[in-house]
Design a protein that fits this description.
- By secondary structure, the chain is mainly β.
- 3% of the residues lie in helices and 46% in strands.
- The chain contains one helix and eleven strands.
- Strands 2, 4, 5, 6, 9, 10 and 11 form a seven-stranded mixed sheet that branches. It has a four-stranded antiparallel sheet with strand order 1-3-8-7.
- A hairpin with a 6-residue loop joins β4 and β5.
């Protein structure tokens, strides 16, 4: 049973930073492709970042490149999303997601497991 629990969301002013955490059950973080997906009201889900469990290779959406960093701590079974220089357009519900392997694409529909989400609001 895969369980993903996000935390760290909140309301911040533009230009500030937030760090999201995704705690997983078992050794998911070290064996599965982990990603972050966001969805703003009235918009489609958008793949934000992903990290490969083996190589540690990372992928980012164009809208967050240079501002967001995905990382993982295998010992803690946790994935992080460091978000810097936040903009109002980053306002969304952020979901942690997992799939068997990283395809190099950030398509939300390719993930098999999802957390409940954490809200990020930037004003």
């Amino acid at each position: 049973h895969v369980q993903l629990v996000e935390s760290g969301g909140g309301s911040v002013q533009a230009g500030r930073s937030l760090r999201l955490s995704c705690a997983s059950s078992g050794s998911i973080v070290s064996t599965m492709c982990m990603g972050w997906v966001r969805q703003a009201p009235g918009k489609e889900r958008e793949g934000v970042a992903a990290i490969s469990p083996g190589s540690g290779r990372r992928w980012y959406g164009d809208s967050v490149k240079g501002r967001f960093t995905i990382s993982q701590d295998n010992a803690k079974n946790t994935v992080y999303l460091q978000m810097n220089s936040l903009k109002p357009d980053d306002t969304a519900m952020y979901y942690c997601a997992a799939r068997g392997y990283c395809s190099g694409r950030l398509r939300p529909d390719e993930y098999n497991y999802w957390g409940q989400g954490t809200q990020v609001t930037v004003s």
